[in-house]
Design goal:
CATH superfamily of the largest domain: Glycogen Phosphorylase B
InterPro entries: Glyco_trans_1
Order of helices and strands: EHEHHEHEHEHEHEHEHEHHH
Protein name: Glycosyl transferase family 1 domain-containing protein
Distance between the termini: 9 Å
GO molecular function: glycosyltransferase activity
Largest sheet: 6 strands, parallel
CATH topology of the largest domain: Rossmann fold
CATH architecture of the largest domain: 3-Layer(aba) Sandwich
Shape: globular
Strand order of the largest sheet: 6-5-4-7-8-9
Length: 262
């Protein structure tokens, strides 16, 4: 049995060819983390027996731990930070490694544009990475230091999730952004660009607002949140009824069932 945790065509070290991917059919079961990757393998399968070996299992998430850690005040190495947002203005949070692909530059530009249009709000960017100083410089150039907070690295981002009004995924591209499963676990109102995996994770718009993968798309989503926050209530209702297939207990049950049937 083998568990594929990435899109093999888009890895950091090597982009697999069709011939290389077909070698995985030598395993009794091929576990993959998304429907998109499953479909790719199915297209390469040469018979029904090979297709039957492919099973989609999401990366397990300890949802109980996420919920528990979200109750903590203060986080990780930034003891002086208090992840409590002011209730006087809506707050948007975005969490991730600060790389260009995450689109934090787009998020800051949209933030500035909305402020200029009179929509008072705040944003928080949680994470560190090689592009951190560039994003910090852009924040200064845009003059939004007082409304855009750059938290940096923390080993517990969940209080920031919990205390924000909205979660924003501003990415230019992704493989399978599991950060959305964390936002879903904490029942956040989500705005996400339509990158790989987002449709599947948000059940194609049932669990959050999917927007065009562009600065304009992010702008339209955040503006909708500020103009008409009631619009997002339908997502809350759906999240309350949602059974999380990615939680640790469900994932373990699925894996045990597969092993028992080998």
């Amino acid at each position: 049995m083998v568990w594929i945790h990435n899109d093999l065509r888009k890895t950091h070290f090597h982009n697999y060819t069709d011939e290389e991917i077909r070698k995985f059919f030598g395993f009794d079961k091929i576990l993959v983390i998304s429907e998109q990757i499953k479909a790719d393998f199915e297209n390469l399968a040469q018979n029904e027996d090979q297709k039957s070996r492919i099973v989609r299992i999401y990366n397990p998430l300890d949802t109980e731990e996420v919920i528990s850690k979200s109750q903590e005040v203060g986080s990780g190495k930034l003891e002086d930070q208090q992840p409590l947002t002011n209730n006087d203005q809506p707050t948007f949070v975005s969490v991730g490694t600060v790389f260009p692909q995450k689109g934090f530059d787009r998020l800051l530009k949209v933030h500035k544009r909305l402020l200029e249009e009179g929509f008072q709000h705040k944003i928080q960017i949680v994470g560190d990475g090689y592009d951190f100083e560039n994003i910090k410089k852009l924040r200064s150039e845009l003059g939004v230091e007082n409304t855009a907070e750059m938290i940096g690295f923390t080993d517990n981002p969940y209080p920031y999730f919990k205390n924000a009004d909205f979660y924003v995924l501003s990415s230019r591209y992704e493989g399978f952004p599991t950060v959305l499963f964390e936002a879903i676990t904490l029942k956040k109102k989500i705005i996400a660009t339509e990158v790989s995996g987002v449709g599947e994770m948000l059940e194609y718009g049932k669990l959050g607002l999917m927007v065009e993968n562009s600065e304009e798309g992010i702008y339209s989503g955040m503006k909708k949140a500020l103009e008409n926050p009631e619009f997002f209530e339908k997502y809350n209702h759906n999240l309350n009824d949602y059974e999380m297939p990615f939680n640790l207990e469900n994932s373990v049950k699925s894996i045990r069932k597969i092993i028992d049937n080998l």
